[in-house]
Amino acid sequence: MCEGGAVNANWEERVAKAWDTFDTYEEDRAGEFRALIDELAAELPEGHPAGLFERACAFDSTGHSDRAVPLYQEALERGLDGVRRRRALIQLASSLRNVGRAAEGVALLGPELEAVPDELDDAVRAVLALCLANLGREREGLALVLGALAPHLPRYQRSMGAYARALVEPAEA
Fold first, then answer.
1. Is the pLDDT of residue 145 over 90?
2. Class of the CATH domain delimited by 8-104
3. By CB neighbour count within 10 A (0-12 exposed, 13-18 middle, 19+ buried), where does 149 fall?
4. Fewer Cβ atoms within 10 A, N terminus or C terminus of the chain?
């Protein structure tokens, strides 16, 4: 149990271990996994952003984007912070896309392109690209994906970056 109902290293470790077991749950046992996450979330005070986030992730990961969306939203409204905040934005945008609300996903992730760079930047661009594709804006999505990929290539970074920009910038006369 979390001491005083607060997130601590022990709780974080147990949550990480639970997620490490996720792939061992067959599809027909998804409810068992969600119950495990619910037990961990219940150790926190009612409505704690981290608990809401973990529950949202469990629904999302077991094919219930529709049930994940309100939990992500509530976690963010209640002040989810740190890396979980950015993960929640990415995952919420993806879930919104899955339930036919891709424009809301674009609105969520657009500002994240200007955020302080971190290890989730490529995920932001990948999900944003998927949302854009759902809206018929594939060229913009492809430009984002190429721009994210370019720095990881052993060669051609400069040309891929230029090609990415050319997809969305107006052609010169």
1. yes
2. mainly alpha
3. middle
4. C
